[in-house]
Amino acid sequence: MLSRVDVALVPAEAGAIEADAYVVIDLLRATTTTAVLFAGGLRRLTVVRTPGEALALRRPGQLLFGEVGGLAPPGFDHGNSPVEAAGLDVAGREAVLATTNGTAAICEVAGRGTVYTGSLANLTALQEHVAARHGPVAIVCAGTEGATRFTLEDLAAAGALVRVLAANGVALGDGAALAAACVEQWPGGVEAMVRSAGHAQTLGRLGLGEDISASLRRDSSTAVPVVVEWGEGWAVLEDAAAG
Amino acid sequence: MLSRVDVALVPAEAGAIEADAYVVIDLLRATTTTAVLFAGGLRRLTVVRTPGEALALRRPGQLLFGEVGGLAPPGFDHGNSPVEAAGLDVAGREAVLATTNGTAAICEVAGRGTVYTGSLANLTALQEHVAARHGPVAIVCAGTEGATRFTLEDLAAAGALVRVLAANGVALGDGAALAAACVEQWPGGVEAMVRSAGHAQTLGRLGLGEDISASLRRDSSTAVPVVVEWGEGWAVLEDAAAG
After folding, report:
1. Residues in chain A closer than 8 A to B144 (CB atoms)
2. How far is A178 from chain B (nearest CA, A)?
3. Is the ipTM of this complex over 0.90?
4. Closest-CA residue in chain A for B193?
5. Model pTM?
6. Which residue in A125, A185, A183 sits closest to A157, CA to CA?
7. Contact B2, B117 (CB under 8 A)
8. Are residues B187 and A182, on separate chains, in Cβ contact within 8 Å?
């Protein structure tokens, strides 16, 4: 039974948190895209830290998703866009995803307990799955600049998850208390927090504003992506909620 | 002229922030005690990470301050208590301070630009000194558990400092925007944030509640402690505002 929720405000903090399960959130956009791809029936997703690793690891038939500086690198099939992902037929397919922050954060945490990816897109599915299976849970904000710096949008999504996870008797660490308080008290709530984040403004300048709106949409996915294999610099996700 | 304020929510984040100056905050209690000691006329303070290092580095005539688990270790002259420090005659003296988080964070940041220590006790003096001398400034929350985990009380003090530093044209990173928003929006403001922190509750259980109240008092010190020498695991502070 869920006993405690902590939030790592940057992935480096996660190394100091003992938990049964870790939920990595990169709201804009890696873990939102991941939730959308599994909602579309994707079977397996290999996440890596760089486009070069993605090109090297890709096997025949696998789709290649990713971004550098927000945009799809040369030779990739698709960007790191939940809007683009929602329009694709990925049922039964496998894919590789390389991003600057979210996939780096997943790789950093992989191997420490059960590792899930979270977003507003799969908030309820994730909450139900995690609350039923784990005692202490840590939510890991992926951040920016190679997963080294804090970002507001990940704290907003973490706060939304803390609020649905927290119930009587569930202890909250300082980061979790902060996340929950922010989404309750911030004028305009989660959406305003996300839109005020530096990274949201960068995406807006790149013409990717629709991805921000898509990332704010709750429960468009019932997927619970979970790391099933990992090594140095890579991890493989499958949907724990798939039949 | 001050151009930008960032906040590192844990010391590990500071490594990714380029700034002219870094202000380390361990509100409960190392950097508050430091501000109080310099207000009393302390001439030099050597900060280290462990009691063993303090005992090894201490030279004749130097006072020994510090804590492990909140209390003064055996063989130390004094704890890490701003209340205790305020009652001592330290004018012209030198001292060594070993704490679990604040001094570890100072040692981690030392050597990256000019490094100050901040607290509510020296908020105005620090703001005036820093704003007049530096372009991009990073505030570093020392945190807890060996300076690896985020704490609310350091964010509260960071937010108070961001608010007095921020003016028209000063850019705020996401962490700085968060800190400022929290102290503006948290019901009960800085004091309520500090008192709700897990570490404040630990100090309360140790009977050190008066240190929390002392740490909330603003501008009892005009000291601007600055790192003037450093090496692996140690740093020496003097008061940049001393005549």
Report:
1. 174
2. 7
3. yes
4. A178
5. 0.96
6. A183
7. no
8. no
